[in-house]
Write the structure tokens for this entry.
Amino acid sequence: MKNIIFPLIFIYLLCSCQEKSNEKLIWSDEFEYDGLPDPDKWTYDVGDHGWGNNELQFYTKEKPENARVENGRLIIEAHQDSSFTKGYTSAKLHTKGNASWQYGYMEIKAKLPKGVGTWPAIWMMPEESKYGGWPKSGEIDIMEHVGYDQGVIHGTVHTEAFNHRKGTQKGAQIQVPTCSDEFHIYAIDWLEDRVDFYLDGEQYHTFENTGKGFEEWPFDHPFYLILNIAVGGDWGGAKGVDPDIWPQRMEVDYVRVYSEKPD
């Protein structure tokens, strides 16, 4: 009898935990389809105006070479392409206009590109500029990686008081040597009093609400998700762009948003 009861208890507890996690899941894309990214979930930024960082890529729209879903994964791929003015194409996908959230647990499983000049990011921006233009209304960088500093993952927030233009940004770095060879889970737990940053389920950074106004904490309104690979730019291209590494891709296994951190 004992041999029967213990497995049944284990199965019950496992199912119960899964049900609780599913109840907290409020938005996701598991990429269980092929073709272009789901237009009900993802929109494109388009162009090559530098995006505030002197970047080189032209972000294309609905071009499978740069953004597609295949074999259960989203592929964002940057290419060298001399037919474009600055020589590169890529894709920048976001959920603005389709989905945004105020607080929650955002989790993305991804494998990153590699090479000098690559600058992949998983990040969040405000649905509306409640306090004014960047950086007044805030930015949350769930994951950034620059190819000349291989294996170093950055988690950062930007606000009017804390931003990279002033050199006051609030962030932390964690070593992930296999970030371009294996999938890892990048996540934040965004609460009313803090934002916690996670790598593979382990917390490595916290940004706390100081209570000193929007200049330090503008994170009290909805934000949307962004996935992209930039080429070059002020940070990504600080040590040049290797012309011999392209194409480079970021693969995303899933994107999940929970109302609160799963147990």
Summary: The chain has a mean pLDDT of 94. The helical segments are 2-24. Residues 2-24 form the longest helix (23 residues).
